[in-house]
Amino acid sequence: MASQMPVQLPSASSKDRVGSTDSDNGPLSLPFFYQHKDDVDRAEATYRAAVQADPSDAVAYVNLGILLQSEKKDLDGAEEAFRAATVVDPSNPQWHLNLGALLEEERKDFAGAKEAYLAAIQANPSCADAYNFLGLMLQEQEDVDGAEAAYRAATEADPTDMDSQIYLGLLLQYERKDRGGAEDAYRTAIEAHPSYAEARIQHLAMWRAKSV
Asked: What keywords sit in the KW lines (predicted)?
């Protein structure tokens, strides 16, 4: 029988959240330039011109929403933009996740956020981030069973996803007191991503320590 890789359990856990973004869906270059030059109004005008010119441009809606949320603190405008993106391109799970995160973190509309996360899963059942976002929200609501089910679904949807294995491991370690199960989850993450998984585990552990 082959010996198993030793795993050092972290000293804390995390509510850190990371979502992947497809490089093709990155910010539009010109308004992104304006935004980084602190010309937020000009960036907003450029995004709005883009969606007016092409109402089916989901990326422009998303970038407009991000700008309105992060730079202008205009939650109504940001939500409207994120919802528009999900309407014109419902097949992209990232658009639903943007909406869900705003509803959860800014609106405290957990029912609406859950609906958005489930829509992301429906859009792409292989998207581990969608299950992870749902799991993190459920865990914050102390629904440990629901969170564990979501993380396990994420690991099944994408066995190579590092964060879902780590989120599962942290839940098993700190909520379930299941040291063996946690070690298995961490080991899977490390074997899939040997160059940086251990650092990621400790990073998420430190974030949890700050949030509890």
From this structure: TPR repeat
